[in-house]
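Dear colleagues,

As part of the handover before I leave the project, I'm documenting each prediction I ran so the next person doesn't have to rerun anything. This entry is a single chain, and its sequence is reproduced below.
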Amino acid sequence: MRQELRRQDRMAAVGELATGVAHEIRNPVAVIRSAVEELRGNLDAHELVAKLAEMVVQESDQLNEIIEGFLDFSRNPVRAHETFDLRSVLDEVVESLHRTHGQGGAHNMVVHAPEKACSVVGDRNSLRQVFVNLGANALESMENGGTLDISIERVGGSFEVRFDDEGPGLEPDQVAHIFEPFYTTKESGVGMGLAVSLRIVTAHDGVIRASSRGEGGTRMTVRLPAAAE
C-alpha cells in the first residue's frame, strides 16, 4: 500500500510537470509548423529545401504528439460520473477500429459479452479512450493479420474486459515496464498510451494488467467495479 501511494505521488508530480512543459512547448511548435508550411507552399523547385521542409513538418507533428501525450497524462482522468453499459462502449470501439485499422481485411475482431447489461459508473469517454488504445495496440501487433478477441465477464463485484491478440506476445521485462511513461515496444510511437490508460483505470478504482498468453499473443485485462444494482 505504501509503495502504491508513493507511485501515485510520483505520477501526480509528473502530471503537474507535464502540464507546464506541454504548454510552454506547444506555442513555439505551432509557429514553427505554420512557418514551414507557408515556406513549403511557396517553394518553386528546390528539391533539397523542399525535402528539409517536409522533414521539419514531420518532426513537428511528432513533437506535437508527445505534447498531446503529456496533456492527456496530466488531465483529470475522470471528468464525468455516469452509469453506462460496457457493451455499448465496446461496440463503438470496434466500429472505430474497423475504420482506422480494418481497411486491409487482414484483421478480424470478435466480441463476447453477456446478454445482461454490464453497467459501470465513471467517465464513459475516458474509458472508451482506454479500450480504443488497447484495441489499436493489439491490431498493430499482428503485422500479418489475425483475430482480436474482446470479451466481458462478470467476476464477483467487477467486470473484466479482456483484449486477446495473436501477436508476438510480451517478454517478462516488457510486462514489467509497459505502463511506464515513454516506454514502447513499437518502432514508432511516443509510449504514453498505456501510461494514460493506467491513470484512467486507476482513477475508476479499477485495475489494468498485461500478460502473455500461453498459446501466443498478449492479453490486456481491465477490471472495473460493477455499478450497484
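The beta strands are 82-85, 107-112, 119-122, 146-155, 158-164, 207-212, 218-225. The chain has two domains: 1-74, 82-225.

All the best with the project,
I.
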